[in-house]
Specification:
Oligomer: single chain
Largest sheet: 7 strands, mixed
Structural class: alpha/beta
Bound molecules: D-malate, manganese (II) ion, zinc ion
Distance between the termini: 6 Å
Low-confidence stretches: none
Strand content: 15-25%
Length: 309
């Protein structure tokens, strides 16, 4: 049995974002607190006892407080069910939460060497001492099985693969500590319970749906997919910023070659948008965009929702 908890469904900034007065952020602060959402991350487990985080968002502390599945075991003075953290990129909203896990409990960080190079080059992450927090390189197209605290296999098989994307925002115009070759900056994950064979895909960032990606996702029981923007230029037209979704490495939900169209005929069991920016009108219940998305079989789920496969 594969258990998944959505720790956060929002993109960088969350909902509401601290400095934003857009319609979604305003209503999330007042009439519609149910729209509040923390920055994107999920937790997965196949024994219900040991959990792996997929990315560590800046909201991790709040997410852990709100998620009973991830609380310390009754009767133990120091304990965490979090056994490992798998990183799919090095954006702030994917790695900053590691700094909230600095109190000495053991776990392993699994990440591509390009992401590990960024952690290494930022001395603030040295707070995660090597004795308790191991850093394990993962490679594109090489499946791995994260281990339990006693070194035994977890029963979860994870296949990282390259998806169209870009290096982290804060590296724009700067040398990447791992060199110029971009492969490995943005990963998708296929996560499988070895015993049942049930699996899901996780893609919090994806700039484009390629034919290769379509054939991977076809027939999957569950896909979490990049839902940053509804339209590529929505930040600009709403007067919120100057960036397009594409310039940030994110595909739009709508339009030709958008996520809804591209994943439309792939016979996917459950399609869930994740990493949804507060500018995205589909966040508003009852909006035309939300109706279109739901009509196409997609869901936007609240933080804390658990799905079992
Ligand atoms: C992104 O996904 O484009 C980044 O997380 C942006 C950000 O850090 O706010
Ligand atoms: Mn992000
Ligand atoms: Zn906003």
């Amino acid at each position: 049995m594969l258990r998944v908890v959505i720790l956060g469904a929002a993109a960088g900034g969350g909902v509401p974002q601290w400095n934003c007065g857009c319609p979604v952020c305003r209503t999330a602060r007042s009439e519609n607190p149910e729209l509040r959402s923390t920055q994107a991350s999920i937790a997965v487990s196949c024994d219900g006892e040991h959990w792996f985080l997929i990315n560590a968002s800046p909201d991790l502390r709040q997410q852990l407080t709100a998620t009973p599945q991830l609380h310390p075991k009754q009767g133990q003075l120091r304990h965490s069910p979090i056994t490992g953290v798998i990183l799919t990129n090095s954006e702030i909203d994917a790695v900053a939460g590691l700094l909230s896990m600095r109190e000495g409990s053991p776990f392993t960080v699994y990440a591509h060497p390009r992401v590990l190079a960024i952690l290494k080059s930022n001395s603030i992450f040295n707070v995660l001492g090597e004795k308790s927090v191991k850093r394990q390189p993962i490679e594109v197209d090489q499946a791995f099985e994260p281990t339990l605290p006693d070194g035994s296999p977890s029963g979860i098989k994870i296949l990282p693969f390259e998806v169209p994307g870009k290096a982290a925002w804060y590296l724009e115009g700067q040398a990447h500590p791992a060199g110029a070759d971009g492969a490995g900056d943005t990963l998708g994950l296929r996560i499988e319970d070895k015993q049942s064979g049930k699996y899901l895909y996780f893609l919090a960032a994806c700039a484009r749906v390629t034919d290769d990606l379509k054939s991977r996702l076809a027939g999957a029981p569950l896909v979490f997919f990049d839902g940053t923007v509804w339209r590529d230029d929505e930040l600009i037209t709403a007067g919120l910023g100057s960036k397009t979704g594409q310039s940030m490495g994110h595909i739009a939900m709508s339009g030709d070659h958008g996520a809804i169209e591209s994943l439309g005929r792939l016979d996917i069991g459950q399609k869930v948008f994740l990493h949804i920016n507060n500018s995205n009108p589909a966040l508003l219940n009852g909006s035309d965009e939300r109706k279109t998305l739901e009509h196409a079989g997609w869901k936007i789920l609240a933080d804390g929702t658990e799905i079992t496969l």
